[in-house]
Each structure stands twice: as C-alpha cells, then as structure tokens.
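# step 3/5: fold
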Amino acid sequence: MLLVDETDTFLYTDELRGILNAGYQRHGAFVIRVTSEVSGSGTAGENGASGSGNGGGSSSRLVKFSCWCPKAIARIGRLPQTLADRCIVVVMQRKLPSERCERLRDIDAETLRRKCLRFVLDHAEAIRAAKPAIPEGMNDRAANIWEPLLAVADLAGGSGRSGRGRRPWG
C-alpha cells in the first residue's frame, strides 16, 4: 500500500499525477523510466532493455515499474479530477471541540487485522465469485472501483443498500 500525505503541496507535477493515474488498473499500471547502473551491478531483464553505455562504466536502460497497489492520498482540498475519478474519496472534517473520539494509537489494529483475514479466508470463494448488483446512476469507472467493496458489503450483510442519503460514488 502506498500512503501519500500532503499532496496539496506537491501533486502539481504531471509526472507524479501520471504515476498515480496509471495505477488504476492492473494491465496499465506501470511507468517506464530510465535508470543508470554501474557496470556489473545488474543486468537488463524482462523489465528493461539495456541502453548504450556512456564510456564511464555505467549504462542506462529503460525499466518498467509497477504502480498498481492500493493508495491512500491525503490533501487539503479536492483531488485533480483525473485522479478523483479513479478513487473512492473519503472526505474528512475536523471534529468539533465538543466531540470525543478514540485516539488512533489506542485502536487494537492487530485484532482488526485478524478479523479481516478470518473473514477473507472464510469467504474467499464467495468473494471470488461475487457479482454484486451495481447501483443505478453509477458510471463504468465508478462501478469498477466500487464493485469489490459492494461484494464484501453484500457478504457482510447490513442495510447499506437502502438507497437513502447521498450516493458516495458521485
């Protein structure tokens, strides 16, 4: 998982935004970059092709880097539209002085992790075979993004599909 904080201060570069945008679907989730390597430190394999040497004991090659993984991107303000369109956006707001909440450091993450793992192990085949109903009004990209969560929600139960309230996908 990639955690990126304070993107409001640096997400204006086309290169970084391109990497994050490319990580949306597995088949296209890679970027190609030129890397330098010192002679004897490595060889070009299936991920790259050797380039010409510069006569100084090093050479350049093109390397394919995967950028397909879950990403959590934090920022003040809205994400660029091309990125927001590939995300499940969680809008956060400061709590009021009168509100009390548990400190993050006090949450028992290990128990939560074990419960999630147990759920996946117990329901692996049902998750793999799931074809949840896609809510009306959801575009294709949003449906692709939300489908795994809808499948898990259907298996976990609950009344999240009542249709009341704002649609979280758009």
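# step 4/5: annotate
Residues 107-160 form one domain.
# step 5/5: archive (pending)
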